[in-house]
Amino acid sequence: ADETAMLVSAIDDDDTKLSQARRKFFITSAVSIVSLGTILLWSLGGPPYIFGDVALVSLTYMSILFGTGFLTDVDLNSLPWNTLCVLGGSNVLGLTVQSSHLLDYIANGVLPYLP
Description:
Helices cover 78% and strands 0% of the residues. With 115 residues, it is an all-alpha fold.
């Protein structure tokens, strides 16, 4: 009886490990697919009639991953917030320079000096 119980326990452990491996594979696959979709939308600028701005693509990405439970609060707390703030600030500065036409002004000022 003890050998049977040990065998059943070993099978249950193997099933649990297989189940955990399948869950990890599913989560990794889902996050990868959503990430690739996000990168594609960023590259294309996103359909403006749906998203309105590239930043909303990022918000949609975060909403899908955290809203569905693929990522947890532990994952959110482990993000490097200082890096995210630098990236967010750079995005805002880039949009400001572009919308104010400062980028055109700088490009036109530099263009005559290029060979």
